[in-house]
Design brief:
Elements lengths: L12 E7 L6 H11 L5 H14 L1 E8 H12 L7 E5 L3
Antiparallel strand pairs: 1-2, 1-3
Length: 91
């Protein structure tokens, strides 16, 4: 008996990109990033914010689409709002 090997395609991953904005309050952004994106600590969140402000955007992490979309929505609901975007990993 031969078993058919099932092929599973990995779900595409999406990069959660923090968009830079010089008007951000750094403490607020770092606190919200840490609260929402559980694999970011204060040091990493501060570094992401600094990179985003210097380069226009910076990657917070790579996640499946639904999770990345949830993080993006939660950041947008922050008061004041924090802007981010999603980019497909292999595009």
């Amino acid at each position: 008996i031969s078993r058919r090997k099932e092929e599973f395609e990995d779900a595409p991953m999406f990069k959660l990109m923090l968009l830079g904005d010089e008007g951000y309050d750094a403490t607020h952004v770092v606190d919200r990033l840490c609260a929402i994106v559980e694999d970011l600590d204060e040091g990493a969140a501060a570094e992401v914010l600094q990179q985003a402000n210097q380069a226009g955007k910076a990657m917070c992490g790579k996640y499946p689409f639904e999770r990345a979309e949830l993080f993006k929505e939660q950041l947008l609901r922050s008061d004041p709002m924090i802007f981010s975007d999603l980019e497909e990993e292999n595009k």
